[in-house]
Amino acid sequence: MKNYNVLSTICLGVFIILFSMMINGFSFGSLGKIAIISMFLFPLLGVIFGIKGKKGVGKWLLSLLNVIALITIGYLLLLGFGMGEA
């Protein structure tokens, strides 16, 4: 499995789908904690796959987008736990 850029894109796509469902008020029910954890792990996995991908602009673009997604969900989790802005 040498095409890590595709796996990085899939991880970013899954994050975007889960994030948009969360923003629109979709109820995950008893799977809420698993959804939040997976929204943190998919961009992290996407960064790892993006760095391992083929050389070129796509590698760095996917890595950057996944890092931005990771920072976004990390910031929202900090706000949710009361450690964000005062």
Automatic annotation (TrEMBL):
Q: Which domain of life is it from?
A: Bacteria
- Which UniProt keywords are given for this protein, alphabetically ordered? Membrane, Transmembrane, Transmembrane helix
Q: Does the keyword Transmembrane apply?
A: yes
Q: Which residues cross the membrane?
A: 7-28, 34-51, 63-83
Q: What is this protein called?
A: DUF3953 domain-containing protein
Organism per entry: Virgibacillus litoralis
Q: What is the lineage of its organism?
A: Bacteria, Bacillati, Bacillota, Bacilli, Bacillales
